[in-house]
Structure formats: structure tokens, C-alpha cells
Design a protein that fits this description.
The protein has about 80 residues and is mostly helical. It has one domain. It is built from three helices and no strands.
């Protein structure tokens, strides 16, 4: 958990302002990573749905909206 999201957000905003997005460079990096994955034999996956249950379970856990105020259950 990030304790000071305001500090992290300020850092990210400053970094983004200092280093503008370079689409061409990002595309080069993506294509190089894709080629490496193909050379390693891990892309494309043999079964694209393998592990989908775990992904769905994590998505449900991470996207839960906590109750606010006195209705919120106590930890422990």
C-alpha cells in the first residue's frame, strides 16, 4: 500500500513533464520485447486461456470497493 499517494503522484507528474512520451522509442522497445519472447518460445502462448481463473480471482480481489465509515468491518 502506498502511504503517501500525493507524493508519488507529484513525482510521476514531474517525471512526465521532464520526459515527454516518445511513441517511436516505446514502439521499438515493445517490438524488441516481443521478438525476445518469440525467441524464448513463450509467445504466443500455447493456450491463451491458461491461468484465466487466477487472473479473474485477482481482479475480483483487487477491484473490491471498501465500505466507508462506521459500516466498515474492523480488521482482526
Amino acid at each position: 500500500m502506498i502511504r503517501r499517494p500525493d507524493v508519488v503522484e507529484a513525482f510521476e507528474n514531474e517525471l512526465a513533464a521532464r520526459e515527454p512520451t516518445d511513441y517511436a522509442r516505446n514502439l521499438e522497445v515493445f517490438e524488441a520485447l516481443m521478438q525476445e519472447a518469440r525467441r524464448l518460445g513463450v509467445w504466443p502462448p500455447s493456450d491463451p486461456l491458461e491461468g484465466i481463473e487466477v487472473d479473474l480471482r485477482l481482479a475480483r480481489i483487487l477491484n473490491v470497493r471498501a465500505l466507508a465509515g462506521k459500516d466498515r468491518p474492523r480488521a482482526g
